[in-house]
């Protein structure tokens, strides 16, 4: 009798389909829905069921609207093609499947063109709170509901335009060492801005704080922690603080920034571009995040 082969599924860091795509240098891929195992589906169900009450308590109202507008299924991993049927009419955004890491310029250029690079693997069900890299729950349940709001979606597009401007400015610097130094500083500034807004942003809703950042909204533990923990420092969003504030990704965030509205956030992206054009992003404080060589090269060699 032949041994029974259990489906491997699309578990983060363990999926042969993804390994083959990476080996073939494929960034944009299809979502091979047939490869999800029952264990993968059960992981989605568990993640969704435990975080939903916290969304209702701590998430921004626009996020909750987005969950409803996308008709997210609590019982099954979403098909991106179904997500896009609901998403595109609302903001002209789409979720686009990727094999994993996307170099920074390519990522930002995608959102400039209203396509969000979306991971299709899902974390190991034995470690629900351990996420070595983004997965489909973080991307689809954390990011995409906010993309249904046109003002927030326009913030992402505007940020992509700033990244493109950074690549354009880099080409005008003749000295190679200076060009690399400036681009690294600009990338660091943009990464910090993105982290403290799109990933870990808070907003005032009347007298209450609500989370709109995907890193918070996809984390069962951090969602409550970010709003109520007395040890978290929460400050009004100030650009000079944000671009010079380092962050670490392997623990709950001890410092967060609060915006007044998505229009306020859009204005801050405009201000970020003005600072870049004035050279104010060329010497931000050192520290995390370190600039990955692939991210640096993506800006230096960007196709404009």
List keywords for this structure.
304 residues, alpha/beta, Phenylalanine Hydroxylase, 4-stranded mixed sheet, 13 helices, 52% helix, disordered N terminus
Question: What does the model show?
Answer:
- The structure is a single chain.
- Helix content is 52%, strand content 9%.
- The protein has 304 residues and is of the alpha/beta class.
- It has one domain: Phenylalanine Hydroxylase, CATH 1.10.800.10.
- The strands form 2 sheets. Strands 4-3-6-5 form a 4-stranded mixed beta sheet. A two-stranded parallel ribbon has the order 1-2.
- The protein is globular, with a radius of gyration of 19 Å.
- The protein starts with 15 loop residues before the first helix and ends with a helix.
Please specify the SSE layout and strand pairing.
Blueprint: H1 16-23, H2 38-58, H3 61-70, H4 80-91, E1 94-98, H5 104-112, E2 115-119, H6 136-147, H7 150-171, H8 176-199, E3 201-205, E4 208-211, H9 214-217, H10 220-228, E5 233-236, H11 239-242, E6 255-259, H12 262-277, H13 293-300
Parallel strand pairs: 1-2, 3-6, 5-6
Antiparallel strand pairs: 3-4
Helix pairs in contact: 2-10, 3-6, 5-7, 7-8, 7-12, 8-13
């Amino acid at each position: 009798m032949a041994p029974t082969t259990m489906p491997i599924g699309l578990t983060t860091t363990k999926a042969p389909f993804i390994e083959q795509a990476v080996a073939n240098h494929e960034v944009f891929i299809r979502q091979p829905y047939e490869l999800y195992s029952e264990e993968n589906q059960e992981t989605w169900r568990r993640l969704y069921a435990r975080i939903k009450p916290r969304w209702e308590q701590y998430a921004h109202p626009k996020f909750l609207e987005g969950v409803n507008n996308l008709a997210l299924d609590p019982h099954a991993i979403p098909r991106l093609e179904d997500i896009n049927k609901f998403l595109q009419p609302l903001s002209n955004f789409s979720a686009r499947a990727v094999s994993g890491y996307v170099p920074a310029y390519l990522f930002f250029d995608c959102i400039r063109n209203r396509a969000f690079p979306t991971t299709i693997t899902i974390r190991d069900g034995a470690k629900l709170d351990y996420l070595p890299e983004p997965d489909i729950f973080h991307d689809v349940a954390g990011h995409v509901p906010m993309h249904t709001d046109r003002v927030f979606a326009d913030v992402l597009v505007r940020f992509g335009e700033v990244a493109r401007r950074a690549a354009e400015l880099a080409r005008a610097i003749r000295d190679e060492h200076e060009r690399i130094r400036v681009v690294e500083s600009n990338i660091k500034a943009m990464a910090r801005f993105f982290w403290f807004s799109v990933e870990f942003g808070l907003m005032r809703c009347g007298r209450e704080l609500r989370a709109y950042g995907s890193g918070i909204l996809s984390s069962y533990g951090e969602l409550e922690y970010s709003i109520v923990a007395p040890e978290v420092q929460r400050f009004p969003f100030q650009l000079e603080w944000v671009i010079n504030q380092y962050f670490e990704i392997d623990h709950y965030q001890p410092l967060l920034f609060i915006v007044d509205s998505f229009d306020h956030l859009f204005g801050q992206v405009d201000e970020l571009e003005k600072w870049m054009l004035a050279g104010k992003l060329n010497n931000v404080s050192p520290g995390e995040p370190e600039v990955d060589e692939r991210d640096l090269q993506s800006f230096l060699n960007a196709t404009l």
